[in-house]
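Lab channel / #folding
Pinned by the channel admin:
"Please post every new chain as: sequence first, then the structure tokens as a reply. Keep commentary short and put observations after the output so the thread stays searchable."

First post following the new format, from NK:
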Amino acid sequence: MQTLTLSIVQADLAWHNPRRNRDMLTEAARPIAEKVDLIVLPEMFSTGFSMDAPALAEEMDGETIQWMKGLAAETGSRICGSLIIVENGRFYNRFICTDDTDILVQYDKRHLFRLADEHSHYAQGMKKAVFCINGFRISPMICYDLRFPVWSRNEDSYDLLIYVANWPSRRHNAWQTLLRARAIENLSFVAGVNRVGVDGNDLPYAGGSALIDYLGNDIADLGDQPGVATATLDLDALYEFRQRFAFHEDADRFSLTT
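Reply from TO:
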């Protein structure tokens, strides 16, 4: 049996304070009792969802990525989430997954949130990414990507879809509904990791971080409080379901233009 044990961490992020957020997330991760394969943190977990990229951006060998590798070594897990990265003079909202020594995958946010003017501050990502743990093919996405199902369409390319987010309370119903829709339509497990609290722009966040199965059922839901949820996903059960209910064989074929 192929399984993946993962923990999702829902946190009240400190505004523009990477050191405080790293310390808080370290304390959140330490009590995880069982060995997990993957720990998932929210979008821009070191800063909150900020447009002040010049002041907050780090390089790929910067302090926060070194912290991720250190936390991976301490917990025996892989660590992932998004943070602000500067590369070749451009800024990215970048999802990164590391183990204790290496970066396993990076994905730059494709859909930049126009209502917050994100597209004026960050460069758009152009490529999907997939990485593998324990036989699970995992596709990372970031927040606003959730609203665009064509980008996340599963063409037998992944088994777990991860959305890391800073998704505000005023659109909380959309967050909850779309996470479950993505699981059902793509015959995939989904992990959605949001934040709670109020950010530096006075926007409140209601959390709703969840682990969801391929039927759209909740495996875990963290509600509106900081916390950690851990679950083990069964790849054999997913593949058996896909064989019995091969809805993907009737999916429309298409190609993306840029």
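NK: The longest helix spans residues 172-186.
TO: also worth noting, The mean pLDDT is 96.
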